[in-house]
Design brief:
The protein has twelve helices and eleven strands. Helix 2 links the parallel strand 1 and strand 2. The longest helix has 32 residues. It is elongated and about 70 Å long.
Length: 327
């Protein structure tokens, strides 16, 4: 990587990418570019990375602001002028509750389509250290578990986030130093949205009281939670084959004496791995775990987790039934 303006930021991104083994070299990568400073910085830094990457730009016009169409045109024009292959999609039908979640789902679905159609191996997005800290606080408020609290990971399947160890202020400074045009999404400043409230109200108070290092400390906690969560997931995957049996009726049976020798965290992972759509079943799993720890548990205690999923605890096994119970 050559020196010049913005070199320190580009080098820091390269160090993060190497630390997390994001690129082997020569990959075709879909880069999500919103037009904001984070994604503009990401695309420009990746183009400076001497790894032989072939970069494909993907942009989604969510249609949520009056300027979104103009922004999409500007992003396309700029990326094409820089020699990148550009793909743009306009979302529709996002209005209503939880609009950000549906916008995110549409965005990643589009990125995945572009990845598949172009034979790319990775999707790179411009998430920063600030995004990681914000996500942890958001999910902490909602009672998330270890893996979910980890939030924005450096590597997540085919998704990579090379800016995850850089502050948002650094990406903006990079763009300003190099004269790269960028835009700001009005939704990022709208306090009606939870992420905007955490970004503009909560984190500034933390930084004001404990200093800039506090935000980095929160991000480090997220990284450690990710490491711990991944370790528990791997351990549960090793235990799963020897502890779980699928019966002829399609039920999942977990040997109870073996289950009771495990710490609660590993029991949770085992249940999450065995129960379909477990992310929607967290409250039910907590109830089952609580019952396992009670001495006065009723014989053949049964728990309805919704969506036709039933868990029954006998004296010898925990049985998970789908499709209407355990009859």
């Amino acid at each position: 990587m050559s020196g010049g303006p913005g070199f320190a930021t580009a080098e820091a991104m390269a160090v993060t990418a190497a630390r997390h083994k994001m690129f082997a070299g020569g990959e075709k990568v879909v880069v999500g570019v919103s037009g904001g400073p984070d994604s503009v910085c990401l695309l420009h830094c990746l183009s400076r990375l001497q790894a032989g990457l072939e970069l494909i730009v993907a942009h989604v016009d969510h249609g949520l602001s009056e300027t979104s169409e103009a922004i999409a045109a500007d992003v396309s024009r700029w990326a094409a002028s820089e020699g990148f292959d550009v793909h743009v999609a306009r979302a529709s039908g996002l209005e209503g509750p939880n609009i950000h979640a549906r916008a995110r789902a549409f965005r990643y679905s589009f990125f995945e389509t572009i990845r598949h159609d172009n034979g790319a191996s990775l999707i790179a997005t411009g998430h920063t250290l600030d995004d990681r800290s914000e996500t942890l606080i958001q999910r902490l408020v909602h009672g998330a578990g270890t893996s979910t609290l980890a939030g924005v990971r450096a590597n997540d399947g085919v998704r990579v986030r090379p800016l995850i160890e850089l502050r948002r202020a650094e990406t903006r400074a990079y763009c300003e130093e190099l004269g790269l045009a960028f835009v700001s999404d009005p939704a990022n400043d709208d306090p009606r949205f939870e992420r905007a409230f955490v970004r503009h109200e909560v984190l500034p108070l933390i930084e004001q009281r404990w200093g800039e290092g506090a935000i980095r400390a929160i991000a480090r906690s997220a990284q450690r939670l990710d490491e711990d969560g991944s370790a528990l997931d791997e351990l549960a995957a090793k235990v799963l084959p020897s502890s779980v049996e699928v019966t002829e009726e399609g039920r999942i049976s977990i040997d109870l004496p073996t289950l009771m020798t495990m710490p609660r965290a590993l029991r949770r992972r085992l249940l999450e791995a065995s129960i379909p759509q477990h992310r929607d079943r967290s409250a039910g799993i907590d109830e089952v775990l609580g019952a396992l720890e009670r001495d006065d548990r009723k014989p053949d205690a049964s728990f309805d987790l919704g969506r036709a999923i039933t868990v029954t605890i006998s004296s010898v096994a925990l049985v998970i039934s789908t499709g209407g119970g355990n009859k």
